[in-house]
Every structure is written in structure tokens, then in C-alpha cells.
Amino acid sequence: MSDTPAPVAGATAEPTTYTEVERALLARWPETKLEPSLERIESLVHLLGDPQHAYPAVHLTGTNGKTSTSRMIDTLLRARGLRTGRFTSPHVESMTERISVDGEPISEEAFVEAYHDVAPFASIVDAEGEYPLSFFETVVGMAYAAFADAPVDAAIVEVGMGGSWDATNVVEAKVAVITPISVDHAKYLGERPEDIALEKAGIIKPGTTVVTAEQPPAVMEVLLERAAEVGATVLREGVDFGVVHRVPAVGGQMLRIQGLRAEYDEVFLPLYGAHQGQNAALALAAVEAFAGDEPLDSELVHEAFAEATSPGRLEIIRRSPTIVLDAAHNPHGARATAEALEDSFTFNPLVGVVGVMTDKDYEGVLAAFEHVFAEIVCTQNSTARAMPAEELAEAARGIFGSDRVHVAPRLDDAIDKAATLAETGGVYGSGGVLVTGSVITVGEARAMLKPRERDRDRREGR
After folding, report:
1. Chain segment 174-187, per-residue pLDDT in tens
2. Is 120 in the same domain as 159?
3. pLDDT tens digits, one per residue of 352-388
4. What is the number of domains present in the chain?
5. Mapping DSSP to helix (H, G, I), strand (E, B) and coil, where does residue 227 land?
6. CA–CA distance from 229 to each of 200, 217, 219, 225, 421 (Å)?
7. Domain encompassing residue 412
């Protein structure tokens, strides 16, 4: 159990602006400080009138791919004429991204309103409990209340960490989606995939339809045991649905997907990598399961996937040289990204800009990228959890060799250094840069590079 926290800062002054609300939320327990329990969030949503029961939900857990899959589910449900609410974490740039309605993050004004709707009840829970509500628990309450207030026809809810005691798990989901499970957050969830699976299986409830990606045998055994225990139905990738064929295409990939009741051919997905094809199959099966016996219109499926986006996931943010952002932060995600780079891009050279968190398997991440990075620039993001650039570089030298490793503690300097290396290290115009290692690193890079692109477009009259 975690140590008793300091009192919540900002409790005496009522926040009125988005910045003040953001500051008040961040003054609570961070997402990395945990006291595993659903008691606080249960108390909060009960005081709010249990808004999470006002709409059917799709609940997602897993190690990688949750956000991309949830965004595709959102797009497919909206294509069917449903009003959606989507909760996701962490955010890439703005805290408002965590709460989306009809596919778009709520405005800063709506975020402030959601906070004010929840804050009085959060204060009651804080006063009555041994521990106050955390940042994550409070935002979950805000999301559930905002979805009920909208109102939405369906909610897509992504866990923050784990499953059983994740604050989102007060929802009773119609469909539970489990993306590939591997080791991450080992400090909190366990060292073995099957231990992590036990925690993530907690989102499987009686009567739920479970849509799961292919998993290691030990992981699948845990999921099947949990489903049998509570009477849930399990639909498995590679058995009940899956990608039949995929081929890289300009701007993404073409897929043939076997769904639960039909096959969908020549589906264009404007996202890169086999892992995104797998995410698309999961999303399709989840929506088919959510729809029940009602078939999905093939044309709507094609249109929805063609509109799919996933910011910070192999996202091209700039050209000349091409700069790609990817939020891979564990070895499993890094390997999928490396494979996608080889599958869909022809950079020569590719230079990595890597900034990681101290509590991650950074050596595993570095090793996954070693064969695709010609050179690497080690950097750090602005948070206290960031590993110092020089410490990361020391680990990188043992994997890449000293001559391929550079250090630039400031992220903007690191990106500029990598761009120069990419432009001068090969045939003109063929070099590329990948910024990766952490969602926060990618978010900060995205915030830096988007204004640069707008300025460049204005100068060039585009």
C-alpha cells in the first residue's frame, strides 16, 4: 500500500479556467502512485448517480494497441449512426483528449464544466476516505458523467493500467476487448505475462462478450479460465476472426479481414504496420459483437476504416526530412514499430530520437530498434520521471556502440540534430527521423513540430 499522500493542493480556491483545473487535477495522486482499490471510484460514481450505467460500453485492456483499437471502434460505431463517448489514457498533448464525444476531444470549456460537476462529490469522497481520489480516478468520474450528460449511445473505455482495480472497471461492459498482453508496468502488475493477464482479466464480467487478440498460451489460459468462471463468451483472433491478407500501400495498408459474420475485402487502413492490421480486426470484431445479430454494412466498414487516425502512432508529422512519431514505450511495442518501419518505409538512413521513463525497460526498447536506427540521439522529456539523456546514452552505447550514439538533453535540439544526421547521412531526401520511447516524449515533440509545419506551409504558400 502506498504512503499517505499530502493534502490535495488547490482545494481552497475554486478553479475557474482550464489551466487551473489542470493544475488542480495534477495536484492529486499521479497515475504512477497507486493504492489498489475500487472503493474510492465506486463512492464517487455512486454520488454522481452511477452515470457509467447509463449507456452500453466497450471496455479495452491489454499491453499495446488499446488507443488505436479504441479509436477504430469509435469510428466504426459512429459510422453506424451512434453517438459515442471515448475515454483514453494517457493523452498525447492535451488532457482534454482523455474525454472525447463523437470522435473529438471535448473543449477546454466542457472539460472545466465536467470538473465542476464532479468536484463537490470528489471532496466528499476525499473527506470520508483514508486516501483521497487520485488524478486518474477523478478524470474517470468526469468522463462517465460527461458521457451521461451528452448523452452518448455507446462508450468506449480504455483502462489506465491493469484491469481488476483500474478505476474504469466500475463499468459493466457489453464487450471486453483484450489487445496483446506482454510485460509492462512490471512493478505494479507482475513480471510474467500470465501474471499480468490475471490482473487484466478482471474486466471480464458475467455475460460479457470477450474479443481477444492472439495471446501466448499461458496468457490465453488465464483469460479462458476467467471467462469460464463468470460465464463470458470468448471470441479469439485467428479462430473466430482475423486478418486474412494484408499488403502495404501508399499511406497505409490494404486488408482482407474475416469478421464474425462476413469477410471484408480491399479495406484501406491509413495506418502503418501489421500490428495496426491486427488492431483493425479486433475493432471490427468488437463492433460486430456489440451490434449482436445486426450485420454491419460493408460500405460503412470500408468508409470508417479509411478515416481511421491514431496520433503519435507511426504518425508522419513533417517532411524534408520525414519525421515520424511513435509512442512505443516497451519492448513489445518497439518491436512492432521496428517491423512496421521495415515493412512500410524505405528510410536511408533512419535516425532515432529516444526519450524514455526511468521505470520502463529502456534496454529492451533500445535493443528492439538497434537494427533499424543508423544512429540514435538520446534525449529526455520535461517530466520528473524522465531518464536523464546521458544515462540513456550510456545504456545505448552498450547496444549501438559509441560511434552511433549522440546526446541532446533538450528535445528540440535532439530533433534538430537527428534531422541534420538524416539529411546528410545518405541519398538526399531519403533520410528519416523517428521520435519514440514515451507517450510524453512524442506528445512534446508533436506540440513542437506542428507549429513548425504551419509556419513552413505559410512560407511556401500551401
Report:
1. 999 999 998 654 44
2. yes
3. 999 999 989 999 999 999 999 999 999 999 999 999 9
4. 2
5. helix
6. 15, 18, 16, 6, 56
7. 315-459
pTM: 0.92
**DSSP one-letter code for 320:** T
Return the CATH number at 451.
Answer: 3.90.190.20
171 and 255: one domain? Answer: yes
* 342 shares a domain with 199: no
Type of residue at 23? R
User: At residue 343, what are phi and psi to the nearest 5 degrees?
Assistant: -75, -40
Distances (CA, A) of 56 to 52, 82, 158, 160: 8, 11, 14, 19
Give the confidence band of 6 by pLDDT, cuts at 50, 70, 90.
very low
Residue 34 has pLDDT above 80, yes or no: no
* Residue 410: partners with Cβ closer than 8 Å, 6 or more residues away: 379
Q: Is 96 in the same domain as 234?
A: yes
Task: Report the Cα–Cα distance between both ends of the chain, in Å, rounded.
Answer: 56
Q: What average pLDDT does the segment 117-146 reach? A: 96
> Comparing C-alpha atoms, which of 61, 57, 62, 109 is closest to residue 84?
57
